[in-house]
Amino acid sequence: MPAVVNNVLAVVGRLMLVTIFLMSALGNKIPQFSGVVGYMQSKGVPFPSLMLVGAIAFLLVGGVSVLLGWYARFGATLLLVFLVLATYYFHAFWTLPADQSQGEMIQFMKNLALMGAMVGIIANGPGAMSIDSREGRENEKIT
Length: 143
Prior knowledge:
Subcellular location: Cell membrane
Pfam families: DoxX
Largest sheet: none
Helix content: over 70%
Number of strands: 0
Number of helices: 6
Mean pLDDT: 93
Strand content: under 5%
Structural class: mainly alpha
Radius of gyration: 17 Å
Protein name: DoxX family protein
Shape: globular
Membrane topology: Multi-pass membrane protein
InterPro entries: DoxX, DoxX-like_oxidoreductase
């Protein structure tokens, strides 16, 4: 594949990947802050207001970081932590009766796939046309 196509695909892939995180923060969590806090409280999330502020920060910082490929491994780690906690608290399909678990299992599996993408970025970096690659961080390994 020509390098220019590969470069464009890397950027488009990062944009597609982070859209769900950025839209979650900007389109739901920020404008509906008090409602989301109530929902979190109903799910047993400790310190829901504080946790929501943290979630919004992780979503925005992690999303922009991965999108730009700027300290992308750190951004992907933030998104991975968000996904682990969100999946545990909100998509625990194993706690539901069998006839009610299908939707949560689908959400769990979607989050698992997104976690895999974050692990891939943590392991391999953001790819071409990223700030990390321009600044020489692209090939740094986790130590």
